[in-house]
Design a protein that fits this description.
Elements (H helix, E strand, L loop, with lengths): L2 H9 L19 E3 L7 E5 L9 E11 L6 E5 L7 E3 L8 E8 L4 E3 L3 E2 L5 E3 L2 E3 L7 E2 L4 E6 L2 E3 L10 E11 L2 E4 L7 E3 L11 E10 L2 E4 L6 E3 L2 H11 L2 E3 L2 E2 L4 H17 L2 H5 L4 H22 L9 H13 L3 H4 L6 H9 L6 H15 L2 E4 L2 E4 L4 H17 L2 H4 L5 H18 L10 H16 L3 H4 L4 H11 L3 H14 L14 H17 L2 H4 L5 H28 L6 H16 L3 H4 L6 H4 L17 H12 L9 H17 L2 H4 L5 H26 L3 H17 L2 H16 L10 H9 L2 E2 L2 E2 L3 H12 L3 H6 L3 H24 L4 H9 L3 H6 L2 H29 L2 E2 L2 E2 L3 H13 L3 H4 L5 H22 L7 H12 L3 H10 L5
Parallel strand pairs: 11-19
Antiparallel strand pairs: 1-2, 2-5, 3-4, 3-6, 6-7, 6-8, 9-13, 10-12, 12-16, 14-15, 14-17, 17-18, 17-19, 20-21, 22-23, 24-25, 26-27
Length: 957
């Protein structure tokens, strides 16, 4: 199967498949349907072909007839192989036909059609943007338009099918001659066309479509001329009467004239515009008219501006008018705009405003009062101060903006900041609650106290009394606890014995109480703990209770054994000796805690001597020795020397006894204990003697400190025996005349601050600081209130730094010192000498009076300009104000908020003088150039300076 054929057949429209027609056995021609006109479409109609015929190809032809023999030939038309055929322009006047080929290679021929010949017509050419009544300027480019081509036979020609050619002519007399080289659709008129006689120009257009050609008639003549530009130039020249003055008697009329001239200019071609040599004059006039119109509009709308925006709005108007030069101001016919601006401007010269500023400043000053050369607020509460501030602020708002800057509002701002700071301070009390433990209350109070002490004196005075009471209550929350602890501790402590006199029934109560006292002490803050007296003693008592309890139990054990009948004598003796040895090792304080000592000391065990029935000859001597040793049971009846002699005698006697007789000395343990006591005291006495012989105060003090600790650890008997020499050492220790009195130092530190202010001078605080620094590290630990001194030292440094600033700057710049002084805390202020405080306060109080000079200068400066015009005799007035201003202090100068107006007046005087100098330089002869320079400079002066110039230099013309 032929797949290609199938594809082709499938691609042929159904109309190309000829249905079966009875009797269609001859080839029928193909008819051509449609108008045989260029750009029209012809269609080969195959409806007359035999039924079932399948057409798979077409070809269109040009049919040509030979003039010689009349023979016809067919030329296939390239690309024309479809059932339809759009007649091309080259087919005009030609005969065409078509053939169709079937799938059986049968060729069917179409009839002949003659394409209509073209009958072209062309309209006369015209020019873009021009008509016969307009001119063409030299240098301008003319573009041909119009010259539309049409076909009388009905062909709808496309622009792409037509080509154009151009011939340009210029008129010479009554005839036209061609312009060489001018063959495009545009022609640029030479700039020297008028000079060369190329005045009237025209163009002819030739159009070609296919083989047909048509030539247009000659266009209308265009005249080359400068006439539009020349006329406009002349009109523009009439806008001014001089370089510095417009030709205007009515602004609105002048504005309309300028607008009309600009419209004429915009209508010109670019080349014609280029010929308008004075267009800058028109352009400047347009800009100046717009500027004056805008300024007029702004002045007219001044009444609509809200009051708070009006000062800036009016200032902008004034500045805008001041920028106008003489030429621009000539548009202000009769100074109408200038006078309108003067009317709406209000120079700040009103006496009432200055008086109000002074009154407000006095009200601000009255916010403060002075107490012992310290500054505080007149109001006794935050609420009262707020109310005063609100009144002052409301008054300030009523003052014109020009004068608000002259208000001395530093104190007002400080007051508002102080209120804010106190409100923040009061919020700290939210963390303080009486429901908290005393420790937490004291801790919170410490933070609040620190913040309070950082406040200035006048800030502190704003703190409500109720909060000060709360602070003091919180700070003293541990006082009751401290007092109770001191009372309880005192009840438990004494020099030689503990006065508690415990019994078996009260023992545990005392132990519990002592433990509780120590636990409560540990809950105290560091500052409160320092107020507890005897804490070291109570901790020693806690230890002594534990030590004494062990001995008490040993005595109880011995007593229990002694009450038993079947206890071995050796066991009872061992228990007794052990308990007695333990008891004898106790210090006096510890022994005072042993409530059952009598059960030991008054109940020695009975000892049986067994010598197998034989008595030694020296038994009597043993009995005597035993009686003597029995006296050692109470050492308090002996001095050391007596005991030492008695012990030595007893020891010798004991050694002289026989072994059998020694058994009868059943209390030998007492001699052994006494011997140990003697030896212990001898050793202690050596230490005492070494301390006595030490001649260096510091070294002796250290040795005595060591001896005191050793004495406290001696057993009670040894303490009794060593006491005389120990006390003699203490009573006769070396005295350091230069040694600090710690208790006095502590008391002085405690009294440094009363009611939140220092009671000492800087020198006295430094002296206390030196005393504290000279202490040993151990002595420093005794000064529990050293923190107060540390804070005072920091405040002294701050005050000394302030005083350096005071000495350096107070005379030249008191305001700086006043501000620095205000930043000091209340305690720091109190350290500044009264003399200095008095000078600072006097300076602050005198500020208002001294400011009067500054206010007078403010008024004088404001009076320089009256209604936007400088006053007469400006130069002399400015010199006077300058001299007065230069005499002001730095702080006073800061009050002259309108100082820039003075410097502006000085600059304006200088500028006017410079212009006058140009006038002075004009020579008597040939001075045109110099005069021109002066006129130019004069024209640039603002209206304000123009009036100033004419007032100062009336003869300059």
């Amino acid at each position: 199967m032929n797949k290609k054929l199938l594809f082709t057949v499938a691609a042929i429209p159904a109309a190309f498949i000829i249905p079966a027609v009875a009797g269609a056995d001859e080839l029928a021609p193909i008819s051509i349907i449609g108008d045989a006109v260029v750009n029209k479409t012809l269609t080969a109609s195959i409806t007359g072909l035999p039924a079932g015929t399948i057409i798979n190809g077409y070809q269109w032809y040009y049919v040509e007839t030979s003039e010689a023999d009349g023979a016809t030939t067919k030329k296939p038309i390239s690309g024309a192989t479809q059932a339809t055929f759009k007649v091309p322009i080259e087919a005009a006047g030609k005969t065409i036909t078509v053939e169709a080929t079937s799938t059986s290679e049968t060729v069917y021929k179409g009839d002949l059609r003659v394409v209509s010949s073209l009958s072209l017509a062309i309209a006369a050419p015209t020019f873009e943007g021009y008509s016969a009544s307009k001119f063409v300027a030299p240098g301008e480019t003319v573009k041909v338009s119009g010259a539309k081509v049409t076909d009388n036979s009905g062909a709808d020609l496309q622009s792409s099918q037509i080509t154009y050619s151009y011939e340009w002519f210029y008129k010479v007399g009554e005839v036209f001659t061609i312009i060489d080289g001018a063959s495009e659709d545009t022609y640029t008129v030479p700039k020297d066309a008028i000079e060369k006689g190329t005045i009237n120009i025209a163009v002819k257009v030739t159009a070609k479509a296919g083989a047909s050609v048509v030539v247009s008639d000659l266009s209308d003549v265009l005249t080359v001329s400068n006439e539009p530009s020349n006329t406009l130039i002349e009109s523009i020249q009439t806008l001014r009467v001089s370089d510095v003055k417009y030709n205007v008697t009515d602004f609105e009329v002048f504005k309309a004239e300028v607008k009309a001239l600009d419209s004429q200019y915009q209508a010109l071609s670019a080349a014609a515009k280029a010929n308008v040599t004075n267009y800058d004059v028109l352009k400047r006039a347009i800009a100046d008219v717009e500027a004056i119109s805008a300024l007029n509009d702004k002045v007219n709308k001044a009444g609509e501006v809200v009051e708070k925006d009006k000062p800036k709005y009016l200032k902008d108007i004034e500045e805008a008018y001041d920028k106008l030069d003489l030429l621009q101001r000539s548009l202000d016919v009769g100074d109408t705009l200038f006078n309108s601006i003067k009317d709406i401007l209000k120079a700040p010269t009103d006496i009432a405003d200055i008086a109000e500023v002074r009154r407000i400043n006095q009200a601000i000053t009255a916010l403060l009062k002075y107490d012992n050369f310290l500054i505080k607020y007149e109001a006794d509460s935050i609420e009262s101060l707020k109310a005063q501030i609100e009144v002052i602020e409301a008054d300030i708002e009523k003052v014109s903006k020009n004068y608000q800057s002259a208000i001395q509002d530093r104190t007002l701002k400080d007051a508002m900041q102080d209120i804010k700071k106190i409100e923040q301070f009061i919020k700290r009390f939210d963390k303080l609650s009486t429901s908290n433990t005393p420790n937490k209350q004291v801790t919170a109070a410490k933070s609040i106290r620190t913040a309070y002490e950082k406040l200035t004196y006048k800030q502190q005075q704003l703190v409500p009394a109720e909060y000060i009471t709360k602070l003091l209550d919180a700070e003293n929350a541990e006082e009751n606890q401290i007092n109770n602890l001191n009372t309880e501790i005192a009840s438990y402590l004494d020099d030689d014995i503990y006065p508690m006199n415990p019994t078996a029934q009260t023992w545990q109560t005392h132990v519990t109480n002592v433990n509780r006292i120590i636990s409560e002490y540990k809950t105290l803050t560091k500052t409160s703990a320092a107020k507890v007296v005897g804490y070291e003693g109570i901790t020693q008592l806690q230890k002594d209770l534990k030590t004494a309890e062990k001995v008490i139990k040993q005595i109880e054990s011995y007593t229990s054994l002694s009450n038993m009948s079947d206890v071995k004598e050796s066991k009872l003796k061992s228990s007794y000796s052990s308990a007695l040895n333990a008891y004898n090792k106790l210090t006096s304080l510890q022994q005072s805690l042993v409530y059952n000592e009598d059960q030991l000391l008054n109940n020695p065990p009975n000892v049986t001597v067994d010598n197998n029935g034989k008595e030694p000859t020296d038994k009597a001597a043993a009995e005597v020795l035993k009686a003597n040793i029995a006296k050692f049971a109470d050492i308090t009846k002996y001095s050391f020397t007596e005991l030492e002699t008695a012990v030595n005698t007893a020891t010798t006697a004991y050694k002289n006894l026989s072994s059998a007789a020694r058994k009868y000395v059943t209390n030998y343990h007492l001699l052994t204990a006494a011997s140990k006591d003697v030896k212990g005291v001898v050793s202690f006495h050596k230490k005492v003697q070494a301390a006595r012989e030490e001649m260096n105060v510091g070294k002796q003090a250290k040795k005595i400190e060591s001896i005191e600790k050793a004495y406290a650890k001696l057993p009670a008997n040894q303490q009794h025996l060593a006491k005389p020499q120990f006390e003699a050492l203490l009573d006769n220790r070396l005295v350091d005349e230069n040694a600090p009195d710690i208790s006095t130092l502590i008391n002085k530190i405690d009294g440094l601050v009363i009611n939140g202010l220092y009671t000492a001078t800087v020198a006295e605080i430094k002296q206390l600081s030196e005393q504290y620094s000279s202490l040993s590290s151990s002595d420093k630990k005794l000064v529990k209130n050293a923190t107060i001194l540390k804070i005072a030292e920091a405040d002294v440094k701050k005050v000394e730094s302030f005083m350096k600033q005071y000495d350096k700057s107070f005379a030249s710049n008191p305001t700086t010192i006043i501000k620095a002084f205000a930043k000091l805390t209340a305690k720091q202020m109190n350290l500044v000498s009264e003399d200095v405080r008095e000078k600072i306060i006097s300076a602050e109080q005198g500020q208002q009076g001294s400011n009067e000079t500054a206010f007078s200068i403010v008024e004088s400066i404001n009076s320089l300009l009256q209604g936007g015009v400088y006053k007469a005799d400006l130069q002399a007035e400015v010199l006077n104000i300058r001299a007065a201003y230069d005499k002001l202090s730095t702080s006073e100068k800061s009050i002259v908020k309108n100082y820039s107006k003075l410097t502006q007046a000085e600059a304006d005087l200088k500028k006017v003088a410079e212009v006058h100098a140009l006038y002075e330089a004009i020579p008597a002869e040939n001075g045109d150039t110099a005069r021109k320079a002066w006129q130019t400079a004069f024209a640039k002066l603002s209206k304000k300076l123009e009036l100033l110039y004419t007032d100062m230099y009336k003869d300059d013309k």
